[in-house]
Amino acid sequence: MNAVVLLTAVCAGAAAWVMCARGEVLRRARALLGGAPEARGASWGLLGPGGLENRLNGLLEPFRVRFGWRLGREVLLLPGGSVVGLAAGSVLPVLLGAAAVPLAGRWLRGRERRAEAERRAVAVGALCAAVAGDLRAGLAPPAALAGALGREGWPEHPGLSSAALPLLAAARFGGDVPAALRAAARLEGAEGLSGVAACWQVAVDGGAGLADGLDRIAVALRAERDQREDLRAQLAAPRSTVALLALLPVFGLVLGTGLGADPLGVLLRTPAGLGALAAGGLLEWAGLAWTARIVRTAEGGS
Fold first, then answer.
1. For the residues 146-155, what does the mean pLDDT come to?
2. Where is the Type II secretion system protein GspF domain (predicted)?
């Protein structure tokens, strides 16, 4: 039991460490943007805002820079595993929670990356439509591009701000707009900008209509987004069924505990329970991996 309590304290401290570091990063960002008066004020020492957090963040930052560590919500698995370990009187849930942190972090970052790519694709389609509208209103292509970038919020977009500045500079100061568009198209989800670059190059060299080409790109991106959303809606029911089936063992543990049994104790403190836990965990992982592969195949073939 002493080992469980010690590991629980270590995991809780690690979770608090990471959360304080993340809070300090947000505080610094707000200070740079001028939106947090308390961040611009003087520190109150070790216990004040920015005191203990600054020191913890200073300890963690070298590891992030050197090893590329990036912890987020997955760190909550540490106290979660510690609570289960304390309830069951076993070190195993604490170790499993710690081992699951990098896997959960990879899954969460993959979700964030895919969501950001979809937002970029939507922004590219909106930009094409906005530039085409300005061209038909009589604006020159560079002025139309610069104005549309500002109206669509690309300089403030967290996933497109790095591409917006070169595009704005090229449009306003006579730079190589197609090259800037191709460079921005390397961002995941912004591949449609390569088509914009081709249309821009053809319009400049051959005098073809740029607005019509941009309209076609916007329509194609919109159709692709609609197809993706339709496929996601069709896969929502199978995904919900898989999630429910995956949670059934947890419901069984809760039911057994409510009936007066000790399922956690049997699973974590007896050889037969540990064997059943290992076999069940492998089968659970295999089922989830198989289902995820089926879903990825369906999405890739759409």
1. 86
2. 133-255
As a whole number, mean pLDDT of residues 280-294 equals 86
Instruction: Collect all residues with Cβ–Cβ distance below 8 Å to 257 and sequence separation of at least 6.
Output: 263, 264
Q: Is 295 in contact with 287 (CB distance < 8 Å)? A: no
Question: What single-letter amino acid sits at 202?
Answer: V
CA 168, CA 216: separation in Å to the nearest integer? Answer: 23
Q: Is pTM beyond 0.85 here?
A: no
Reply yes or no on whether the pLDDT at 75 is more than 50. yes
271's CB contacts (< 8 A; 6+ apart) are none
Query: What is the pLDDT averaged over residues 37-53?
Result: 40
Residue the block writes with tokens 């979660």: 80
Q: Apex CA 115: angle with CA 112 and CA 117, to 5°?
A: 110
